[in-house]
């Protein structure tokens, strides 16, 4: 979507055009979802759903005040981040046991060949919860929202090099967490 | 020939592996890391771990639920909207039928000396009406020209006009 098209959609949506708002959300949904998941982690998926609903409600209600000084994606990212952080501070999410983490089912997981993949996905999902929030956000935007490093830098308002460092250090940290004896024991107990 | 990574410890190489797996290193650094990994079983295993991690992370997009799940109730597609959409698709058929009838009338008029002779003095609306009339007359004549055919053709046209006008009005109101 070009900048002009997006500006047009924002203008229409701010006048109450629901279809225009839906188009905007459809384009930037993965970004908003990724940042909410990054902040809330996989601790409580119900919270993620509640926050997402709140994000779109606030975005729809706040469109009239959106001046277009930043991109719509950045504006939505900020709302998603603010709402997720608000939930974290209000509910003071306690550190959840790794056993409480429930990995959502994914289409195509039925085959036996997917078991090993699912095992690694679950391990990564749990280990992600231990990452620094900045690393987690950069990784989720990179993989869950499939954003380029330049787009992530734009959203997070950081230099591209810093974003790359976050992603790479995050992966190194993931590997370190997954290599810990406690994780290996947990994995053995599960399998 | 020695290279600057040859004597580097494995820890330093491992730090570079995420960027190596993502093809984010310069070609020169990438070839140096590759050379080290090929000669170091420990770093080769670490590389495999990052490759598996990369593949697993790449599946995370599939975990994003559809955006409609989270839209405010007022924006979620409701039954009346779905009905409107279906109606709009349906009304495109009579709309096309009307245009075809108009075209049929136009073609009949073009090839009729009797009609074109009198068209010069008519207004655009009168011409269009006459063209449509010609088209309808041609259809009625093709159907046998009896009263039943006449009623059916004009009845279908009336229904098509009403439904299309209704759908158009609803569309304008919605937008």
Give a quick set of tags describing it:
heterodimer; A: 191 residues; mainly alpha; Rna Polymerase Sigma Factor, Chain: A; Arc Repressor Mutant, subunit A; 2 domains; 9 helices; globular; B: 175 residues
Description:
The complex is a heterodimer of chains A (191) and B (175). Chain A has 191 residues and is an all-alpha fold. Chain A has two domains: 1-97, Rna Polymerase Sigma Factor, Chain: A; 106-191, Winged helix-like DNA-binding domain superfamily/Winged helix DNA-binding domain (Arc Repressor Mutant, subunit A, Orthogonal Bundle). Helices cover 72% and strands 0% of the residues of chain A. In chain A, helix 2 (18-40) crosses helix 6 (133-143). The longest helix of chain A has 23 residues, at 18-40. Chain A is globular, with a radius of gyration of 18 Å. Chain B has 175 residues and is mostly helical. Chain B folds into two domains: 10-63; 70-174, no CATH class. Chain B is built from seven helices and no strands. The longest helix of chain B has 32 residues, at 79-110. The mean pLDDT of chain B is 76. The interface between A and B is large, with 41 and 30 residues.
Oligomerization category of the chains in this entry: heterodimer
> Helical element count of chain B?
7
What structural category arises from helix and sheet content of chain A?
A: mainly alpha
**Strand portion of chain B:** under 5%
How many domains comprise the coordinates of chain B? Answer: 2
User: Which H/E pattern describes the elements of chain B?
Assistant: HHHHHHH
Count of distinct strands of chain A: 0
Main sheet overview of chain B: none
How many structural domains does the protein architecture of chain A include? 2
Largest interface: A-B, 41 and 30 residues
Overall 3D shape of chain B: rod-shaped
Largest sheet of chain A: none
Strand content of chain A: under 5%
